Amino acid sequence: MRLFLDTANIDEIRDLAWLIDGVTTNPTLVAKEKRPFEKVIEEICELVDGPVSAEVTALDADGMVAQARPLAALHKNVVIKVPMTEDGMKAVQVLTAAGIRTNVTLVFSANQALLAAKCGASFVSPFVGRVDDVGGGGMDLVAEILETLQNYAFGTEVIVASVRHPRHVLEAALLGAEIATVPYTVVKQMFRHPL
Ligand code: G3P
Asked: Is 26 near ligand 1, meaning CB less than 6 Å away?
């Protein structure tokens, strides 16, 4: 199982760079750093030799593709995070055809994951914490997505996202999810035990 850090904070990434396999950011996380978006992404790529997700903010497919191309050119490890919308999936098709990897985010159903995989997404990110928040079963969603994707040869990997506590990480691993993206504090909690 690969562990990604869900942060844009350079100090957190530097501290855990020896352990992690990649980084996921989102516009909210990057905004907290109060520094230019591209600069933050470049610095992360220097610290971690693995996929680094950088998210587009445009709402239309052409706008997403236009934002994605310069981001992807920043470093070979940049993966473009695209929201799960119809326009997002059009953008994923274009980016995939151009050899640019994508991470489809805000996935809340197995059908959405299936559509993303069909459009060529490299990664899909089901948001387990937010599904739990509304009374759903975040891990049931992950299990459904894994079972669905395993029936085919899409080559799409599952990133368990919106992780809130160490149990989420363990349950993701028990299900055999390829990746979990985990906040810094939750990784630190994973090391500890009261005994
Ligand atoms: O991995 C997605 C994450 O950044 C969002 O998490 O806790 O806001 O649902 P959360």
From this structure: yes
Cβ atoms of 52 and 44 closer than 8 Å: yes
In the chain, the amino acid numbered 65 is V
Task: Judge if the beta carbon of residue 67 lies within 6 A of ligand 1.
Answer: no
* DSSP state for residue 24 in the 8-state scheme: E
Answer yes or no: is the C-beta of 103 below 6 A from any ligand 1 atom: no
Q: For residue 106, report the distance from its CA to the centre of ligand 1, in Å.
A: 9
Indicate the Cα dihedral angle 45, 177, 184, 54, nearest 10°.
40
Confidence of residue 125 (pLDDT cuts 50, 70, 90): very high
What are the start-end ranges of the E strands in 7-160?
A: 22-24, 52-55, 78-83, 102-107, 123-126, 157-160
Q: Whose CA is nearest to atom 2 of ligand 1?
A: 162
Q: Of 125, 117, 120, 119, which Cα lies nearest the Cα of 25? A: 125
Q: Model confidence over 132-153: pLDDT tens digits?
A: 999 999 999 999 999 999 999 9
